[in-house]
Amino acid sequence: MILDQENTLSDQQALTATAISTNVIDLGPLGGFPTANTFRDIGASDDALWLYVLVMTALASAGHAATLTVTLESDDNTSLSSATTHWTSGAIAEASLVAGYEVVKAPIPPGQYQRYLGVRYTVGTENFTSGKVSAFIATGVQILRYYQNAEKNSIS
Asked: Which overall architecture, per CATH, does domain 5-155 show?
């Protein structure tokens, strides 16, 4: 798989509390002739786009009860302050969030996407004390095997 920096939403982003991906993708200005377009549909194509979110180093919390929910969102601003949610993972228990775990491996659904696209990580029950995640968009389904690096307690 070839990863494109422009389609990387998070690159080993440290995650402790609810956060937006460190990179928000600008899908370009909306508009057009003869009428202005107010959205685009990035999920509708023959060569489907897929969202991937991976745990790079295990997510841990003091009470071992934290959960993580990932949503794919778009908005008319980079802070995703009034975002539309296009996809959600549901709450994932901390016990599953070990290095190499694929939090998300899903096709981007068709829909009315606004200009800016990002991922929101919602932490529930309690904050994480450590851990990192990566998120990116790629064409087609990727079949990879992630291996843990024993020296770094992360995946490579």
From this structure: Sandwich (2.60)
